[in-house]
Amino acid sequence: MKEYNADLHLHGKYSGGVSKNMELGLMAEQAKLKGLHILATGDVLHKEWLRHIKANLIEETNGLFKHKKFDCYFIIQTEVECKDRVHHIIFFPSIESAEEMREKLGKFGDLDLEGFGRPKLKCSAETIVEKAEEVGAIVGPAHAFTPYFSVYAHFDSLKQLYKEMYEKIYYIELGLSADSYLADLITENHNYSFITASDAHSPWPFRLGREFTRFRIREPSFKEIKRALIEKEEKKITLNVGLDPREGKYHRTACNKCYTKYNLEQAQRNKWRCVKCNGTIKKGVKERILELAKIEESEISKYEANQINPEFRPPYIHIIPLAEIIQITLKEREPNSEKVQKIWKNFVEVFENEIFVLIDAKIEELSELNKEVAENINCFRKGLVVYEEGGGGNYGKPIICKDNLEIEKLKEEIKKSKKDFSKQRTLNDF
C-alpha cells in the first residue's frame, strides 16, 4: 500500500474562464511541485480537449494515464450539468469509455461548444448515472453545497435528485465552502465518501491542489480509486485537505454585489434584497447546511468531530496555499508577485514540494530557510488564524496571529468595527 495525493476535479483550457496555460504538460509539471501524484484530466467529453488528452497521455496502469514527458498520473474525468442545473463529476475507466459516453450524451446537448468544457445537458441526473453505468463510469455531485449549481442548492437530498439511480452514488465533492465537519451535520451524507478537490482553472500551485484527497491504495489505478470511493470501511481515503470553509466565496449568506452578510432571518425579512445596495442576497453554504441538518448556529459547538463523522471518515486538515502564507508574511498584494514566488521556489527546491512544507516538514527545518514564513506556517498549524468569512461570491480572508493574546486583541477590534470575522477551528474544535 502507498499513499497518493490526488486532485480529482480540474478543467482544461477549452472551458470558459480557464487559463490558456491549463494544458496537461504544465499541469503535470506543476503537480510535482505541489506534491500531487494524481490529477483529473477534466473536460474529456469536449472533442478538442479529448484530442489533447489522446496526444499527450499514455496508459500507465489499469485506467490511469501518464503524461509522455512528466511523471504524473491522470484519471479520465469530466463535469457535466443536468437539466436541473446541478453539476456532476464523472470518472471513466478508459478513454474508450469516455468516447462511448460522448455518443450517449451527444443527443442531449452540444458537447463541443466553445467555452463549454462542462456541457449543459437536457437530461436528468438519473439519466446521466444510467449512461455512466453502461460505460463503467461512476458519478457523484460536484461542489455539493454551492448556491448555484449544486444538489443542495436545488434539492433537499441526493435521493430527490438521482431518484432510481440514487443507490449508484458513492461519493460527494465538498467544494471550497464546506468541509467534512459541516457536511456530516447532514445525516444522509454519512453514506458517502468525500472528495476534496480544487476545481482549478489555473495550473499554478496556489490554485492547483488547493484542495486534495489522499488515498492509500495498492496501485494508482481506476479500479483502486473506485474501490476507495465505494468500499468506505476499507479506509482507503486517509485524508481530506482543503481551505477552511470560511475562505469559500459562498460560505456565508451575503449580498452578491456589496458582500454585506446576513443571517437567514434577516435575509428572509428583507425578501433576499440587500438593505445597503438593493443587490440580491445569496444563501450561504453554512446556512444551507444548518437548514438541512435542522440545527441552530448556536448549537454547533455541541457537536464534536468524532460524534458527527461516521467511523470511516478520515481527518480533514485545513491549509492555506504556501504562496498565500508567504504573501501574508511579506504583505504583498498578490501570491504570484516576484518576491513571493522567489521564496516559494526556494522552499519547494529544498523540501521537494509544497504539500510537504505545509503539512509534514519540521518547523525547525523550515526556519533555517526563512524564519518569518516558518513562524506563520507554525501559527497556522496551531489554529492561530482569524477569518473574515467569504460570502456572496467574495473569498474569505485569513489573518494569521502570533498567539492567543493577539487573537483576543483582534477580536476586540472587530467588535468595535463590527466586521464579520471568526476564529479558525482546529480539527478538535468543531
Principal-axis shape equals globular
Quickly count the domains.
3
Structural class: alpha+beta
The CATH architecture classification of the largest domain is Alpha-Beta Barrel
Helix content: 25-40%
What is the radius of gyration computed over CA atoms, rounded to a whole number of angstroms? 21 Å
- Strand-residue proportion: 15-25%
Largest sheet: number of strands, sense, barrel closure: 10 strands, mixed
Brief summary of the model shown:
With 430 residues, the protein is an alpha+beta fold.
Your description of this structure?
The protein is globular and about 60 Å long. It is an alpha+beta fold. The strands form four sheets. Strands 1, 2, 3, 4, 5, 6, 7, 10, 11 and 14 form a ten-stranded mixed sheet that branches. A three-stranded antiparallel sheet has the order 16-15-17. Strands 8-9 form a two-stranded parallel sheet. The chain folds into three domains: 2-245, TIM Barrel (Alpha-Beta Barrel), CATH 3.20.20.140; 252-282, no CATH class; 320-425, no CATH class. Strand 15 (385-388) and strand 16 (397-400) form a beta hairpin. Helix content is 34%, strand content 17%.
